[in-house]
Write a structure and sequence with these properties.
By secondary structure, the protein is α+β, with helices and mostly antiparallel strands. It has one domain (5-203). The protein contains 3 helices and 14 strands. The strands form 3 sheets. Strands 2-13-14-11-10-7 form a 6-stranded mixed sheet, covered by helices on one side. Strands 5-8-9-4-3-12 form a 6-stranded antiparallel sheet, with helices on one face. α1 (14-20) packs across α3 (32-62).
Amino acid sequence: MIKGQVSVISVVIIAFLVVSLIGASYMFAGPMVEKQSTISQHGSAGKFMLDLDKTIVDIARTCTTKDGCEERIRIPVPGSLMVDDDSNSMIYLIDSSQPLLTDAPVYLTPGNTDDVANYGEVQNPGYVTMEGLQINGQNKLRYVLHYRSLYNAEQGKTFNITLVGSGEGAGTTVVLNYIGTETSIGGGHLLSDLVNSKVNVKIL
């Protein structure tokens, strides 16, 4: 994982960012319709992950009813979406017509990527990255929404959002709902109390 501060990237330039990282030859070759489709799809995929993050955080922070606060978000671009329990992340994999010019992850959210972030330096426990890769000779874009711990020194608490889900899906809709919140005394960063909110993820 890359540590340190990352740049703020506005939602409105996600599509431009992706296309600017695609090989220059593609920008001068191929049908204009294909180029426009690429811009639209990748912009929609990036925005989807940011919307997913906002919805999950809203559910975790505001919901008090077990199995309540259900939200549904349409998956805009066909691909594979899964919950990775080991890394507490959601991974969204879609096809790309061309490889990216960089192998390094591109960060779509502000803040840092420390395993434990300090509240005030960042406001959100999650961050979204995008990277290009090849699988069986096919170019792919992988978007990752990862949740880490958020430590609030003033309150003396560490806050977690835990994603609960399994398997991998190529569906059209993500269904989210609140499972509940547990507090572990002294279980957080610097022996602070750990407040762990769980959000269930289903792919239909």
